[in-house]
Amino acid sequence: MTWHLGRMAGFDLETTGIDVEQDRIVTACVVQCGGGQPTVSATWLANPGIDIPEQAEAVHGISTARAQAEGKPAAEVVADVLAALGQAITAGLPVVAMNARYDLTLLDREARRHSLAPLPDGFPVIDPYVLDKQADRYRKGGRKLVDLCAHYQVPIGDAHTADADAIAACRIAWRLGSTSPVLSGCSLPELHRKQVGWAAEQAAGLQEYFRRKDPNAVVRGEWPLIPHQQGDV
Q: Is 148 within 8 Å of 220 (Cβ atoms)?
């Protein structure tokens, strides 16, 4: 069985911002789908312990007041998400995350912030953002999740909610694996290894582009997460 026909674990976070070192989880979803089995989804709403900026609320619709009133303690949510992903990894499922570098790095920092064990190294990750840029390098237009859903004709439902985004990422991964011979012929370990290289190349190209305006611009190329440095959190 090729990787895109097997079961996957979709993962998505909605957060207080875009700084993986400082921002916090607001909502999260882990969904197991595919492989001829029923879809099983778990979602969480956290009280992040800091205010949710208006810009972030405008994206995912969760206000500080709602998170404080309805959200579970952040440490509890982080522990639950780690456990759900750990269960999927133990079962041999690849983790599918759109722009995995962001979600997995932020989850790693949240784990450390709350003195929890981060996810283990070495599990297979499928990142539709990396795969799409590799499979169709010169396509014009946006590369955000909503753009990929439109391009690959994948329904997304309520975009920018963690559960809708997680299942959409899995559907895009399935579509890419079904239509791209470059991707469908890889085993899961091989696909993961190739994404490490592709993500680094893509980051280098983006950094070169940004440096046309800002000579000091830096785009980190590590994938699927940015390694933790002592003192970061």
A: no
Q: At what angle do helices 162-179 and 128-135 cross, to 10 degrees?
A: 30
Cβ-contact 117, 111 below 8 angstroms: yes
Q: Tokens 């996810």 belong to which residue?
A: 119
Q: How many CB atoms lie within 10 A of CB 210?
A: 14
For the whole model, what pTM was predicted? 0.95
Backbone angles phi, psi at 49, to 5 degrees: 85, -5
Assess contact for 137 and 198: CB atoms under 8 A. Answer: no
Question: Left if phi > 0, otherwise alpha if psi is -120 to 50, otherwise beta: which for 150?
Answer: alpha
23 contacts 159 by C-beta, under 8 angstroms? no
The segments of the chain whose pLDDT lies below 50 read none
